[in-house]
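Researcher: Batch entry, complex prediction.
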Amino acid sequence: MSNLLVDIAQASHRVLLTQASPIDLRSNVAGKAYLAFRSGDRLSRPINKALFVFDENELLRRLAAFMNDRAAHLASADGPSTLYTIAMSYCAASDTVRLLDKKTPATYFEIFAGHLLADRFGANPQTSATVLNLDMKGDLPTDFIFDLGAGRSKFHVPIKISTRERVIQVWAHQRVLDGIYGAGRFRGLLVALTETKLDRKKLDVVEICLPDQWRVYQMFIAQLDRIYYLDPPAAYARLATGYPIVNVRPFSSFFSEADLLSGPS
Amino acid sequence: MSNLLVDIAQASHRVLLTQASPIDLRSNVAGKAYLAFRSGDRLSRPINKALFVFDENELLRRLAAFMNDRAAHLASADGPSTLYTIAMSYCAASDTVRLLDKKTPATYFEIFAGHLLADRFGANPQTSATVLNLDMKGDLPTDFIFDLGAGRSKFHVPIKISTRERVIQVWAHQRVLDGIYGAGRFRGLLVALTETKLDRKKLDVVEICLPDQWRVYQMFIAQLDRIYYLDPPAAYARLATGYPIVNVRPFSSFFSEADLLSGPS
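Model: C-alpha coordinates for the complex:
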Protein backbone atom coordinates (compact mmCIF):
# COMPACT_ATOMS: atom_id res chain seq x y z
CA MET A 1 0.00 0.00 0.00
CA SER A 2 2.83 2.44 0.81
CA ASN A 3 4.39 1.25 -2.46
CA LEU A 4 1.27 2.25 -4.30
CA LEU A 5 1.30 5.74 -2.73
CA VAL A 6 4.91 6.18 -3.77
CA ASP A 7 4.17 5.06 -7.34
CA ILE A 8 1.19 7.42 -7.58
CA ALA A 9 3.22 10.33 -6.16
CA GLN A 10 6.04 9.75 -8.62
CA ALA A 11 3.74 9.42 -11.65
CA SER A 12 1.66 12.46 -10.64
CA HIS A 13 4.75 14.57 -10.03
CA ARG A 14 5.99 13.67 -13.51
CA VAL A 15 2.63 14.62 -15.06
CA LEU A 16 2.90 18.04 -13.45
CA LEU A 17 6.50 18.60 -14.54
CA THR A 18 6.18 17.31 -18.09
CA GLN A 19 2.56 17.95 -19.13
CA ALA A 20 1.82 21.22 -17.34
CA SER A 21 3.52 24.57 -16.74
CA PRO A 22 3.93 26.35 -13.43
CA ILE A 23 2.48 29.85 -13.15
CA ASP A 24 2.96 32.16 -10.20
CA LEU A 25 -0.09 33.16 -8.18
CA ARG A 26 -0.57 36.29 -6.11
CA SER A 27 -0.56 35.33 -2.45
CA ASN A 28 -2.79 37.11 0.05
CA VAL A 29 -1.49 34.83 2.78
CA ALA A 30 1.27 36.36 4.91
CA GLY A 31 4.51 34.42 4.64
CA LYS A 32 3.37 31.94 1.99
CA ALA A 33 4.06 31.96 -1.77
CA TYR A 34 2.03 29.89 -4.24
CA LEU A 35 2.05 28.63 -7.79
CA ALA A 36 -0.32 26.53 -9.83
CA PHE A 37 0.25 24.15 -12.72
CA ARG A 38 -1.61 24.91 -15.92
CA SER A 39 -2.43 22.53 -18.76
CA GLY A 40 -4.59 24.03 -21.50
CA ASP A 41 -7.75 25.36 -19.87
CA ARG A 42 -7.13 23.51 -16.66
CA LEU A 43 -5.46 25.02 -13.65
CA SER A 44 -4.38 23.10 -10.56
CA ARG A 45 -5.15 24.09 -7.00
CA PRO A 46 -2.56 26.43 -5.40
CA ILE A 47 0.70 24.84 -4.26
CA ASN A 48 2.69 26.27 -1.35
CA LYS A 49 6.17 26.70 -2.83
CA ALA A 50 7.99 26.25 0.48
CA LEU A 51 6.38 22.85 1.10
CA PHE A 52 6.53 21.33 -2.38
CA VAL A 53 9.57 19.38 -3.57
CA PHE A 54 9.91 20.40 -7.23
CA ASP A 55 13.14 18.56 -8.04
CA GLU A 56 12.43 15.02 -9.20
CA ASN A 57 15.70 13.55 -7.94
CA GLU A 58 15.18 15.05 -4.52
CA LEU A 59 11.65 13.62 -4.50
CA LEU A 60 13.00 10.17 -5.41
CA ARG A 61 15.49 10.40 -2.55
CA ARG A 62 12.64 11.33 -0.18
CA LEU A 63 10.42 8.51 -1.38
CA ALA A 64 13.26 5.99 -0.89
CA ALA A 65 13.83 7.27 2.67
CA PHE A 66 10.07 7.09 3.28
CA MET A 67 9.90 3.46 2.09
CA ASN A 68 12.93 2.56 4.18
CA ASP A 69 11.45 3.78 7.50
CA ARG A 70 8.16 5.60 7.10
CA ALA A 71 7.65 6.86 10.65
CA ALA A 72 11.27 8.00 11.03
CA HIS A 73 11.28 9.89 7.73
CA LEU A 74 7.92 11.56 8.36
CA ALA A 75 8.98 12.62 11.89
CA SER A 76 12.24 14.10 10.49
CA ALA A 77 12.77 17.67 9.27
CA ASP A 78 11.87 16.44 5.76
CA GLY A 79 8.49 15.12 6.96
CA PRO A 80 6.28 18.16 6.29
CA SER A 81 7.42 18.66 2.70
CA THR A 82 7.47 14.94 1.87
CA LEU A 83 3.88 14.58 3.10
CA TYR A 84 2.78 17.73 1.29
CA THR A 85 4.46 16.74 -1.97
CA ILE A 86 3.01 13.21 -2.00
CA ALA A 87 -0.52 14.46 -1.31
CA MET A 88 -0.41 17.56 -3.48
CA SER A 89 1.21 15.91 -6.51
CA TYR A 90 -1.78 13.67 -7.02
CA CYS A 91 -4.39 16.34 -6.25
CA ALA A 92 -2.77 18.95 -8.50
CA ALA A 93 -2.13 16.46 -11.31
CA SER A 94 -5.78 15.41 -11.14
CA ASP A 95 -6.80 19.08 -11.45
CA THR A 96 -4.75 19.42 -14.63
CA VAL A 97 -6.25 16.38 -16.33
CA ARG A 98 -9.89 16.52 -15.17
CA LEU A 99 -11.90 19.71 -15.05
CA LEU A 100 -13.20 20.56 -11.57
CA ASP A 101 -13.27 16.99 -10.30
CA LYS A 102 -13.40 17.38 -6.53
CA LYS A 103 -14.33 13.88 -5.54
CA THR A 104 -11.34 11.88 -6.75
CA PRO A 105 -8.74 14.02 -4.91
CA ALA A 106 -10.88 13.88 -1.74
CA THR A 107 -11.07 10.08 -1.95
CA TYR A 108 -7.35 9.86 -2.67
CA PHE A 109 -6.51 12.10 0.28
CA GLU A 110 -8.64 10.04 2.64
CA ILE A 111 -6.90 6.85 1.56
CA PHE A 112 -3.47 8.52 1.72
CA ALA A 113 -3.88 9.85 5.28
CA GLY A 114 -5.86 6.82 6.44
CA HIS A 115 -3.12 4.48 5.30
CA LEU A 116 -0.35 6.47 7.00
CA LEU A 117 -2.31 6.51 10.26
CA ALA A 118 -3.08 2.77 10.05
CA ASP A 119 0.58 2.07 9.30
CA ARG A 120 1.76 4.12 12.29
CA PHE A 121 -0.90 2.80 14.67
CA GLY A 122 -0.48 -0.79 13.48
CA ALA A 123 -4.27 -1.11 13.29
CA ASN A 124 -6.82 -0.98 10.50
CA PRO A 125 -9.70 1.51 10.59
CA GLN A 126 -13.42 0.81 10.79
CA THR A 127 -16.07 3.13 9.39
CA SER A 128 -18.95 2.51 11.76
CA ALA A 129 -19.62 2.49 15.48
CA THR A 130 -22.14 0.38 17.35
CA VAL A 131 -24.98 2.28 19.00
CA LEU A 132 -26.41 0.50 21.99
CA ASN A 133 -29.26 2.20 23.78
CA LEU A 134 -32.44 1.29 25.63
CA ASP A 135 -34.45 1.82 22.47
CA MET A 136 -32.19 0.95 19.62
CA LYS A 137 -29.21 -1.07 18.57
CA GLY A 138 -27.48 -0.47 15.31
CA ASP A 139 -24.46 0.77 13.43
CA LEU A 140 -23.79 4.45 12.97
CA PRO A 141 -21.67 5.27 9.90
CA THR A 142 -18.60 7.26 10.96
CA ASP A 143 -15.34 8.62 9.67
CA PHE A 144 -12.35 6.36 10.31
CA ILE A 145 -12.28 4.79 13.76
CA PHE A 146 -9.02 3.21 15.00
CA ASP A 147 -9.28 0.86 17.96
CA LEU A 148 -5.81 0.00 19.31
CA GLY A 149 -7.18 -2.61 21.71
CA ALA A 150 -7.62 -3.00 25.46
CA GLY A 151 -5.88 -0.37 27.63
CA ARG A 152 -4.91 1.78 24.66
CA SER A 153 -6.60 4.72 22.96
CA LYS A 154 -9.35 4.68 20.39
CA PHE A 155 -9.32 7.37 17.71
CA HIS A 156 -11.98 9.16 15.70
CA VAL A 157 -10.29 10.43 12.54
CA PRO A 158 -12.12 12.58 9.99
CA ILE A 159 -9.97 13.35 6.94
CA LYS A 160 -10.77 16.34 4.70
CA ILE A 161 -9.06 18.20 1.86
CA SER A 162 -10.25 21.42 3.54
CA THR A 163 -12.74 22.10 6.28
CA ARG A 164 -14.76 25.12 5.14
CA GLU A 165 -18.19 25.61 6.72
CA ARG A 166 -18.85 21.90 7.17
CA VAL A 167 -16.31 21.40 9.93
CA ILE A 168 -18.91 21.67 12.70
CA GLN A 169 -19.86 18.12 11.65
CA VAL A 170 -16.51 16.89 12.97
CA TRP A 171 -17.16 18.27 16.45
CA ALA A 172 -20.74 16.97 16.31
CA HIS A 173 -19.58 13.44 15.44
CA GLN A 174 -17.08 13.63 18.30
CA ARG A 175 -19.95 14.62 20.59
CA VAL A 176 -21.97 11.60 19.46
CA LEU A 177 -19.05 9.26 20.22
CA ASP A 178 -18.51 10.93 23.62
CA GLY A 179 -22.23 10.47 24.31
CA ILE A 180 -22.34 6.81 23.29
CA TYR A 181 -19.04 5.67 24.81
CA GLY A 182 -18.25 8.30 27.44
CA ALA A 183 -16.00 11.37 27.29
CA GLY A 184 -12.33 10.66 26.60
CA ARG A 185 -12.86 7.18 25.15
CA PHE A 186 -12.25 8.37 21.59
CA ARG A 187 -9.57 10.93 20.83
CA GLY A 188 -10.60 13.13 17.92
CA LEU A 189 -7.93 13.73 15.29
CA LEU A 190 -8.89 15.79 12.25
CA VAL A 191 -6.51 15.61 9.28
CA ALA A 192 -6.76 18.33 6.61
CA LEU A 193 -4.64 19.29 3.61
CA THR A 194 -4.99 23.07 3.43
CA GLU A 195 -7.49 25.97 3.61
CA THR A 196 -6.44 27.78 0.45
CA LYS A 197 -8.94 29.21 -2.00
CA LEU A 198 -7.90 30.27 -5.49
CA ASP A 199 -9.67 33.00 -7.42
CA ARG A 200 -9.39 31.57 -10.94
CA LYS A 201 -9.85 34.93 -12.62
CA LYS A 202 -7.60 37.12 -10.50
CA LEU A 203 -5.16 34.26 -9.86
CA ASP A 204 -4.84 35.16 -6.20
CA VAL A 205 -4.86 32.90 -3.18
CA VAL A 206 -6.43 33.36 0.24
CA GLU A 207 -6.75 31.08 3.26
CA ILE A 208 -10.29 30.85 4.62
CA CYS A 209 -10.24 30.42 8.39
CA LEU A 210 -12.86 30.91 11.12
CA PRO A 211 -10.81 30.54 14.34
CA ASP A 212 -13.42 32.09 16.66
CA GLN A 213 -16.03 29.59 15.51
CA TRP A 214 -13.58 26.73 16.15
CA ARG A 215 -13.04 28.01 19.69
CA VAL A 216 -16.79 28.02 20.27
CA TYR A 217 -17.11 24.46 18.92
CA GLN A 218 -14.20 23.28 21.09
CA MET A 219 -15.79 24.86 24.18
CA PHE A 220 -19.40 23.91 23.63
CA ILE A 221 -19.74 20.85 21.38
CA ALA A 222 -16.84 18.50 22.11
CA GLN A 223 -13.06 18.47 22.42
CA LEU A 224 -10.86 17.40 19.53
CA ASP A 225 -7.39 16.28 20.58
CA ARG A 226 -5.52 17.31 17.45
CA ILE A 227 -6.15 19.05 14.17
CA TYR A 228 -3.36 18.14 11.77
CA TYR A 229 -2.68 20.08 8.59
CA LEU A 230 -0.30 19.32 5.77
CA ASP A 231 -0.10 23.13 5.32
CA PRO A 232 -1.24 24.64 8.66
CA PRO A 233 -2.90 28.08 8.36
CA ALA A 234 -1.35 30.55 10.82
CA ALA A 235 -4.79 31.65 12.07
CA TYR A 236 -5.50 28.08 13.21
CA ALA A 237 -1.96 27.27 14.41
CA ARG A 238 -2.30 30.18 16.88
CA LEU A 239 -5.25 28.39 18.52
CA ALA A 240 -2.77 25.95 20.08
CA THR A 241 -1.31 28.75 22.22
CA GLY A 242 -4.35 30.25 23.98
CA TYR A 243 -7.43 29.12 25.85
CA PRO A 244 -9.56 27.26 24.81
CA ILE A 245 -6.77 25.11 23.39
CA VAL A 246 -7.34 23.74 19.90
CA ASN A 247 -4.21 21.74 19.20
CA VAL A 248 -3.49 22.54 15.54
CA ARG A 249 -0.23 20.99 14.37
CA PRO A 250 1.59 19.90 11.21
CA PHE A 251 0.58 16.36 10.21
CA SER A 252 4.24 15.37 10.44
CA SER A 253 3.99 15.82 14.25
CA PHE A 254 1.65 12.87 14.39
CA PHE A 255 4.44 10.47 13.45
CA SER A 256 6.51 11.48 16.48
CA GLU A 257 3.67 11.81 18.99
CA ALA A 258 1.59 8.77 17.96
CA ASP A 259 2.89 6.61 20.82
CA LEU A 260 2.10 9.31 23.35
CA LEU A 261 -1.43 9.68 21.98
CA SER A 262 -1.95 5.92 21.98
CA GLY A 263 -1.43 5.52 25.72
CA PRO A 264 -4.14 6.04 28.34
CA SER A 265 -5.46 9.60 28.05
CA MET B 1 -44.22 41.44 3.09
CA SER B 2 -47.10 38.93 3.12
CA ASN B 3 -48.43 40.84 0.10
CA LEU B 4 -45.17 40.24 -1.68
CA LEU B 5 -45.26 36.50 -0.95
CA VAL B 6 -48.79 36.33 -2.35
CA ASP B 7 -47.79 38.23 -5.50
CA ILE B 8 -44.78 35.97 -6.04
CA ALA B 9 -46.89 32.84 -5.48
CA GLN B 10 -49.52 33.99 -7.96
CA ALA B 11 -47.00 34.99 -10.63
CA SER B 12 -44.98 31.77 -10.20
CA HIS B 13 -48.10 29.61 -10.31
CA ARG B 14 -49.08 31.30 -13.59
CA VAL B 15 -45.59 30.70 -15.05
CA LEU B 16 -45.95 26.98 -14.28
CA LEU B 17 -49.45 26.74 -15.75
CA THR B 18 -48.88 28.80 -18.89
CA GLN B 19 -45.17 28.40 -19.75
CA ALA B 20 -44.55 24.79 -18.70
CA SER B 21 -46.27 21.42 -19.04
CA PRO B 22 -46.90 18.93 -16.26
CA ILE B 23 -45.45 15.44 -16.67
CA ASP B 24 -46.13 12.52 -14.39
CA LEU B 25 -43.25 11.04 -12.43
CA ARG B 26 -42.90 7.52 -11.10
CA SER B 27 -43.19 7.60 -7.34
CA ASN B 28 -41.14 5.28 -5.16
CA VAL B 29 -42.67 6.88 -2.08
CA ALA B 30 -45.58 4.93 -0.57
CA GLY B 31 -48.81 6.94 -0.63
CA LYS B 32 -47.48 9.94 -2.56
CA ALA B 33 -47.88 10.79 -6.26
CA TYR B 34 -45.68 13.35 -8.01
CA LEU B 35 -45.47 15.38 -11.18
CA ALA B 36 -42.94 17.88 -12.47
CA PHE B 37 -43.29 20.87 -14.79
CA ARG B 38 -41.20 20.83 -17.94
CA SER B 39 -40.19 23.80 -20.06
CA GLY B 40 -37.83 22.96 -22.93
CA ASP B 41 -34.78 21.27 -21.39
CA ARG B 42 -35.65 22.33 -17.90
CA LEU B 43 -37.54 20.17 -15.46
CA SER B 44 -38.86 21.33 -12.09
CA ARG B 45 -38.36 19.54 -8.81
CA PRO B 46 -41.05 16.93 -8.00
CA ILE B 47 -44.40 18.25 -6.78
CA ASN B 48 -46.59 16.21 -4.44
CA LYS B 49 -49.95 16.16 -6.24
CA ALA B 50 -52.02 15.86 -3.06
CA LEU B 51 -50.48 19.00 -1.55
CA PHE B 52 -50.39 21.29 -4.60
CA VAL B 53 -53.35 23.49 -5.54
CA PHE B 54 -53.40 23.32 -9.34
CA ASP B 55 -56.57 25.35 -9.95
CA GLU B 56 -55.81 29.05 -10.20
CA ASN B 57 -59.20 30.23 -8.90
CA GLU B 58 -58.89 27.97 -5.88
CA LEU B 59 -55.39 29.32 -5.26
CA LEU B 60 -56.71 32.92 -5.46
CA ARG B 61 -59.40 32.05 -2.94
CA ARG B 62 -56.73 30.56 -0.63
CA LEU B 63 -54.46 33.57 -0.96
CA ALA B 64 -57.34 35.94 -0.13
CA ALA B 65 -58.17 33.89 2.97
CA PHE B 66 -54.46 33.87 3.90
CA MET B 67 -54.24 37.67 3.60
CA ASN B 68 -57.44 38.09 5.60
CA ASP B 69 -56.19 36.14 8.65
CA ARG B 70 -52.87 34.44 8.09
CA ALA B 71 -52.61 32.38 11.29
CA ALA B 72 -56.25 31.22 11.13
CA HIS B 73 -55.98 30.15 7.49
CA LEU B 74 -52.67 28.33 7.96
CA ALA B 75 -53.99 26.52 11.05
CA SER B 76 -57.12 25.42 9.13
CA ALA B 77 -57.52 22.23 7.09
CA ASP B 78 -56.38 24.22 4.02
CA GLY B 79 -53.12 25.21 5.74
CA PRO B 80 -50.82 22.37 4.57
CA SER B 81 -51.69 22.73 0.87
CA THR B 82 -51.70 26.55 0.92
CA LEU B 83 -48.21 26.58 2.48
CA TYR B 84 -46.96 23.91 0.08
CA THR B 85 -48.40 25.64 -2.99
CA ILE B 86 -46.97 29.06 -2.10
CA ALA B 87 -43.49 27.66 -1.43
CA MET B 88 -43.43 25.14 -4.26
CA SER B 89 -44.82 27.45 -6.95
CA TYR B 90 -41.81 29.73 -6.69
CA CYS B 91 -39.24 26.93 -6.35
CA ALA B 92 -40.67 24.92 -9.26
CA ALA B 93 -41.10 28.00 -11.48
CA SER B 94 -37.48 28.94 -10.78
CA ASP B 95 -36.43 25.42 -11.84
CA THR B 96 -38.22 25.83 -15.18
CA VAL B 97 -36.61 29.18 -16.01
CA ARG B 98 -33.06 28.75 -14.64
CA LEU B 99 -31.08 25.60 -15.09
CA LEU B 100 -30.01 23.95 -11.81
CA ASP B 101 -30.08 27.14 -9.76
CA LYS B 102 -30.22 25.89 -6.20
CA LYS B 103 -29.40 29.07 -4.34
CA THR B 104 -32.33 31.33 -5.30
CA PRO B 105 -35.03 28.84 -4.20
CA ALA B 106 -33.15 28.22 -0.94
CA THR B 107 -32.97 31.97 -0.23
CA TYR B 108 -36.63 32.40 -1.18
CA PHE B 109 -37.67 29.54 1.10
CA GLU B 110 -35.74 30.97 4.02
CA ILE B 111 -37.44 34.36 3.59
CA PHE B 112 -40.85 32.71 3.09
CA ALA B 113 -40.70 30.59 6.27
CA GLY B 114 -38.82 33.26 8.25
CA HIS B 115 -41.50 35.82 7.45
CA LEU B 116 -44.37 33.54 8.45
CA LEU B 117 -42.66 32.72 11.75
CA ALA B 118 -41.91 36.40 12.46
CA ASP B 119 -45.50 37.29 11.61
CA ARG B 120 -46.89 34.62 13.95
CA PHE B 121 -44.42 35.34 16.77
CA GLY B 122 -44.79 39.10 16.42
CA ALA B 123 -40.99 39.41 16.60
CA ASN B 124 -38.25 39.91 14.05
CA PRO B 125 -35.37 37.44 13.79
CA GLN B 126 -31.69 38.05 14.42
CA THR B 127 -28.91 36.08 12.73
CA SER B 128 -26.22 36.10 15.39
CA ALA B 129 -25.86 35.27 19.06
CA THR B 130 -23.48 36.87 21.55
CA VAL B 131 -20.76 34.61 22.94
CA LEU B 132 -19.57 35.65 26.36
CA ASN B 133 -16.85 33.57 27.92
CA LEU B 134 -13.85 33.97 30.19
CA ASP B 135 -11.59 34.18 27.17
CA MET B 136 -13.64 35.70 24.41
CA LYS B 137 -16.55 37.94 23.62
CA GLY B 138 -18.00 38.11 20.18
CA ASP B 139 -20.86 37.38 17.84
CA LEU B 140 -21.47 33.91 16.49
CA PRO B 141 -23.33 33.83 13.16
CA THR B 142 -26.45 31.68 13.50
CA ASP B 143 -29.60 30.69 11.68
CA PHE B 144 -32.66 32.76 12.59
CA ILE B 145 -33.02 33.49 16.31
CA PHE B 146 -36.37 34.79 17.63
CA ASP B 147 -36.35 36.39 21.07
CA LEU B 148 -39.91 36.95 22.29
CA GLY B 149 -38.73 38.93 25.32
CA ALA B 150 -38.59 38.42 29.09
CA GLY B 151 -40.48 35.40 30.45
CA ARG B 152 -41.22 33.99 27.00
CA SER B 153 -39.36 31.50 24.82
CA LYS B 154 -36.44 32.10 22.54
CA PHE B 155 -36.23 30.11 19.33
CA HIS B 156 -33.42 28.78 17.17
CA VAL B 157 -34.85 28.30 13.67
CA PRO B 158 -32.81 26.78 10.84
CA ILE B 159 -34.71 26.75 7.53
CA LYS B 160 -33.72 24.36 4.74
CA ILE B 161 -35.20 23.22 1.42
CA SER B 162 -34.11 19.69 2.40
CA THR B 163 -31.84 18.38 5.11
CA ARG B 164 -29.70 15.68 3.46
CA GLU B 165 -26.40 14.83 5.15
CA ARG B 166 -25.80 18.33 6.48
CA VAL B 167 -28.56 18.17 9.08
CA ILE B 168 -26.16 17.25 11.90
CA GLN B 169 -25.16 20.93 11.78
CA VAL B 170 -28.62 21.86 13.08
CA TRP B 171 -28.23 19.71 16.19
CA ALA B 172 -24.66 20.97 16.64
CA HIS B 173 -25.77 24.62 16.52
CA GLN B 174 -28.49 23.80 19.06
CA ARG B 175 -25.80 22.28 21.27
CA VAL B 176 -23.71 25.46 21.02
CA LEU B 177 -26.70 27.60 22.07
CA ASP B 178 -27.48 25.20 24.94
CA GLY B 179 -23.83 25.45 26.01
CA ILE B 180 -23.67 29.24 25.87
CA TYR B 181 -27.09 30.03 27.34
CA GLY B 182 -28.06 26.88 29.23
CA ALA B 183 -30.26 23.94 28.20
CA GLY B 184 -33.87 24.82 27.43
CA ARG B 185 -33.27 28.54 26.85
CA PHE B 186 -33.60 28.22 23.08
CA ARG B 187 -36.18 25.93 21.55
CA GLY B 188 -34.92 24.45 18.30
CA LEU B 189 -37.39 24.48 15.40
CA LEU B 190 -36.17 23.18 12.05
CA VAL B 191 -38.33 24.05 9.03
CA ALA B 192 -37.85 22.02 5.83
CA LEU B 193 -39.73 21.79 2.55
CA THR B 194 -39.33 18.16 1.51
CA GLU B 195 -36.83 15.27 1.23
CA THR B 196 -37.61 14.25 -2.35
CA LYS B 197 -34.93 13.39 -4.85
CA LEU B 198 -35.68 13.18 -8.57
CA ASP B 199 -33.75 10.95 -10.92
CA ARG B 200 -33.78 13.17 -14.03
CA LYS B 201 -33.14 10.28 -16.40
CA LYS B 202 -35.52 7.68 -15.03
CA LEU B 203 -38.05 10.33 -13.92
CA ASP B 204 -38.61 8.61 -10.61
CA VAL B 205 -38.86 10.12 -7.15
CA VAL B 206 -37.56 8.86 -3.82
CA GLU B 207 -37.49 10.40 -0.36
CA ILE B 208 -34.07 10.28 1.30
CA CYS B 209 -34.40 9.81 5.05
CA LEU B 210 -32.01 8.68 7.78
CA PRO B 211 -34.29 8.32 10.82
CA ASP B 212 -31.86 6.25 12.91
CA GLN B 213 -29.20 8.94 12.57
CA TRP B 214 -31.71 11.59 13.66
CA ARG B 215 -32.50 9.53 16.77
CA VAL B 216 -28.80 9.35 17.62
CA TYR B 217 -28.40 13.12 17.16
CA GLN B 218 -31.48 13.79 19.30
CA MET B 219 -30.13 11.53 22.07
CA PHE B 220 -26.49 12.56 22.03
CA ILE B 221 -26.00 16.04 20.57
CA ALA B 222 -28.97 18.20 21.60
CA GLN B 223 -32.77 18.19 21.62
CA LEU B 224 -34.75 19.91 18.90
CA ASP B 225 -38.30 20.79 19.90
CA ARG B 226 -39.91 20.53 16.48
CA ILE B 227 -39.03 19.58 12.95
CA TYR B 228 -41.64 21.05 10.62
CA TYR B 229 -42.05 19.89 7.04
CA LEU B 230 -44.22 21.30 4.29
CA ASP B 231 -44.33 17.71 2.96
CA PRO B 232 -43.47 15.47 5.92
CA PRO B 233 -41.74 12.17 4.99
CA ALA B 234 -43.46 9.22 6.68
CA ALA B 235 -40.12 7.83 7.91
CA TYR B 236 -39.54 11.02 9.89
CA ALA B 237 -43.15 11.57 10.97
CA ARG B 238 -42.98 8.17 12.72
CA LEU B 239 -40.18 9.51 14.95
CA ALA B 240 -42.80 11.55 16.83
CA THR B 241 -44.38 8.35 18.15
CA GLY B 242 -41.48 6.46 19.75
CA TYR B 243 -38.56 7.06 22.07
CA PRO B 244 -36.37 9.11 21.65
CA ILE B 245 -39.05 11.56 20.55
CA VAL B 246 -38.24 13.68 17.53
CA ASN B 247 -41.32 15.83 17.06
CA VAL B 248 -41.75 15.90 13.27
CA ARG B 249 -44.93 17.71 12.23
CA PRO B 250 -46.52 19.51 9.27
CA PHE B 251 -45.45 23.17 9.22
CA SER B 252 -49.15 24.14 9.38
CA SER B 253 -49.18 22.81 12.99
CA PHE B 254 -46.88 25.63 14.00
CA PHE B 255 -49.61 28.20 13.41
CA SER B 256 -51.90 26.55 15.96
CA GLU B 257 -49.26 25.62 18.54
CA ALA B 258 -47.12 28.79 18.40
CA ASP B 259 -48.66 30.26 21.58
CA LEU B 260 -48.05 27.04 23.47
CA LEU B 261 -44.42 26.96 22.32
CA SER B 262 -43.92 30.60 23.23
CA GLY B 263 -44.73 30.15 26.93
CA PRO B 264 -42.21 28.99 29.54
CA SER B 265 -40.84 25.59 28.52
